[in-house]
Recover the amino acids of this structure.
């Protein structure tokens, strides 16, 4: 197992290099001049601009620039912005907000999605099942912007007005984990719907398996047949989905962060792309890729725990 | 050694004359999109203590559905049992409450399935799966249940049971997996064991070993064994009597040796003629012509008539009842005499 983890981490290196180079090249190719953008509307002294250009290696070929950058990253140095702020410092607080948001979303997704999915599967073909499927369809088809603002208004503003209690803070991250509940739910919305459907299918399929018939023939009570024999098997594909979704949730946080005014990585990414701050953009993407790789590794390891047929040599 | 559990179900009369298990005029149908599939149409058979009954018939003849009805593991719906009784020690199980039924299932009537790889749960160790019988039904501790599991694995002769109890089903060979299935089914000393094609998925030498093991376990515990198969070859050595099924009906019931010597139904005769025999080596194998009946549209009269070499006009117009030929033997053929005579030559 230990060897497998090491191998997987080594395999992650080319993926990481490839992804960062790609994003580096794209940002590099963006039209416009970052040095010119620094001066805003005014014209910059050409001599000063040339010095800056030299200082930030902007005259070097792309590959060399990339090398400067990535060797720094491997030493924990993400570089500085043009305004002299270390990128790592800039990212740290923002990532905290986004990670909190994504994890809240993930927990909500797992609890609600799996819960609803199991409920639907056990009421297969009945009214509850149909209702749950209808709700998931609604969640999938309504854009996040709409669910975001509607829930903000109903559960945040109106509920507070009518009860006087601030159940779901609607802006900023000032109330601890509670500030993340509503945005987390909005962010998770579509994923909840997909996970619900996936859970339902998975359990329905599993309940048809031969070993379920065996468990019934052994005289096991229904609760045990479902809760032990079926569930352990039905969970396996769901874990994969959840793991892969963590990356997607972090990447997709930008709209939610904007609606709920959370100062996270999404907003920062948007700003930095706008300002052509290469190091920040590439830094954020690098970390997102890392999160993705680690999440996938954890999923694969969990897989081995859940499914003994999978062995890692 | 037998426990009689008289506290739960009264036995009627002595054990000698009440069958352990009696299937009586059982009908099972499935509602499907295409219509009602009549999978079992009036099946009756008896099983006495210590006896082995072989149930024979080609694919789709209703052998498994009958077994599932006995176990009470049919999905209802789509399945329905419009007529019939299944008496266990004289009590009709179809009239019992779910609660009472679940006291029998797995504990007093147990079942072995065809494909042990898919019939065992892939994510639990075999020890856990065998031990579960003791933990759930007998309230044993994990540790005692594990000990029992090892004992059972020894009993079905799995080498190094003590270590292998921690292994998962996929880590065993096909034959060993079927032994685990058997260990699990006999865990609580059932009075009836139903084996649904227990050897079909295995290669020939392993098949013989598994059959031997089943026969031996049955002798030791004196349980009633229902052996479902479509392989006449394996039946001769282990079974006492035979029920041949065709199109959801029983077409012949007899003691094993009688059927082998002189089949009394054209279908059983066809089955026998189609097994390879050493003395007829070199000759072309006989195969029954035609296709199995469509359960959605059964032919009128005798279900076998479109494929029958003995067919006469009345075979198409009237369905034959199960004629009693002797105390131990019956045949659902209007012309059983001719078939018997034909078998004699
Ligand atoms: N759930 C179901 N829904 C509809 N039809 C079914 C269902 N289960 C069984 N049947 C039908 O009942 C008939 C009898 O099936 P059964 O499994 O008893 O056959 P069998 O004699 O055991 O055959 P095999 O040798 O292939 O195991 C088949 O034609 C099958 O299509
Ligand atoms: Mg079958």
């Amino acid at each position: 197992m230990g060897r497998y983890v090491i191998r997987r981490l080594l395999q992650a290196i080319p993926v990481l290099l490839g992804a960062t180079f790609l994003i580096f090249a794209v940002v590099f190719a963006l039209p416009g001049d970052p040095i010119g953008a620094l001066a805003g509307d005014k014209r910059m002294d050409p001599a000063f601009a040339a010095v800056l250009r030299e200082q930030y290696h902007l005259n070097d070929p792309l590959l060399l620039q990339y090398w400067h950058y990535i060797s720094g990253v491997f030493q924990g140095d993400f570089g500085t912005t043009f305004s002299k702020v270390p990128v790592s410092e800039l990212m740290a607080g923002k990532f905290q907000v986004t990670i909190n948001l994504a994890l809240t979303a993930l927990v909500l997704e797992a609890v609600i999605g799996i819960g609803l999915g199991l409920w639907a599967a056990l009421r297969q073909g009945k009214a509850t099942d149909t209702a749950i499927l209808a709700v998931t369809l609604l969640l999938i088809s309504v854009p996040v912007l709409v669910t975001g603002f509607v829930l903000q208004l109903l559960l945040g503003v109106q509920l507070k007005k009518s009860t006087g209690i601030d159940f779901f803070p609607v802006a900023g991250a000032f109330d601890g984990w509670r500030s993340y509940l509503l945005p987390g739910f909005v962010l998770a919305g579509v994923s909840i719907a997909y996970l619900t459907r996936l859970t339902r299918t998975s359990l329905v399929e599993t309940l048809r398996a031969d070993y379920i018939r065996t468990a019934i023939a052994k005289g096991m009570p229904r609760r045990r047949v479902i809760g032990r024999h079926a569930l352990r098997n039905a969970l396996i594909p769901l874990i994969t989905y959840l793991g892969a979704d963590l990356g997607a949730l972090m990447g997709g946080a930008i709209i939610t962060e904007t609606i709920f005014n959370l100062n996270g990585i999404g907003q920062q990414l948007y700003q930095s792309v706008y300002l052509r701050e290469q190091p920040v953009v590439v830094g954020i993407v690098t970390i997102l890729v890392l999160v993705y790789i680690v999440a996938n590794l954890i999923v694969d390891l969990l897989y081995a725990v859940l499914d003994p047929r999978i062995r890692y040599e | 050694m037998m426990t009689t559990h008289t506290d739960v179900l009264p036995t009627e009369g002595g054990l000698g004359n009440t069958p352990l298990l009696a299937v009586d005029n059982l009908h099972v149908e499935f509602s499907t999109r295409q219509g009602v599939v009549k999978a079992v149409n009036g099946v009756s058979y008896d099983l006495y203590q210590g006896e082995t009954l072989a149930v024979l018939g080609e694919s789709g003849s209703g052998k498994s559905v009958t077994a599932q009805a006995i176990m009470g593991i049919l999905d209802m719906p789509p399945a329905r049992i419009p007529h019939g009784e299944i008496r266990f020690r004289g009590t009709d199980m179809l009239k019992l409450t779910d609660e009472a039924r679940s006291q029998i299932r797995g504990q007093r009537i147990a079942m072995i399935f065809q494909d042990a790889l898919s019939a065992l749960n892939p994510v639990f160790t075999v020890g856990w799966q065998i031990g579960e019988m003791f933990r759930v039904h007998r309230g044993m501790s994990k540790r005692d249940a594990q000990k029992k599991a090892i004992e059972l694995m020894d009993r079905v002769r799995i080498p190094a049971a003590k270590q292998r109890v921690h292994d998962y089903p996929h880590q065993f060979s096909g034959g060993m997996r079927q032994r685990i299935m058997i260990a699990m089914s006999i865990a609580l000393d059932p009075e009836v064991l139903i084996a649904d094609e227990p050897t079909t998925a295995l290669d020939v030498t392993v098949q013989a070993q598994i059959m031997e093991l089943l026969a031996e376990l049955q002798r030791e515990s004196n349980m009633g064994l229902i052996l479902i198969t479509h392989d006449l070859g394996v039946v001769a050595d282990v079974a006492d009597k035979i029920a041949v099924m065709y199109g959801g009906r029983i077409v012949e019931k007899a003691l094993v040796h009688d059927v082998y010597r002189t089949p009394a139904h054209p279908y059983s005769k066809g089955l026998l003629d189609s097994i390879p025999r050493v003395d007829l080596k070199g000759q072309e194998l006989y195969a029954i012509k035609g296709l199995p009946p469509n359960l959605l549209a059964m032919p009128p009269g005798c279900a076998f008539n479109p494929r029958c070499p003995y067919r006469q006009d009345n075979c198409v117009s009237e369905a034959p009842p199960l004629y009693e030929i002797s105390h131990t033997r019956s045949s659902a053929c209007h012309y059983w005499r001719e078939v018997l005579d034909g078998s004699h030559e």
In short: The first helix of chain A runs from residue 2 to 29. The pocket of magnesium ion (ligand 2) is lined by residues B 63-64, 196 (CB under 6 Å). The CA atoms of residues 115 and 196 of chain A lie 8 Å apart.
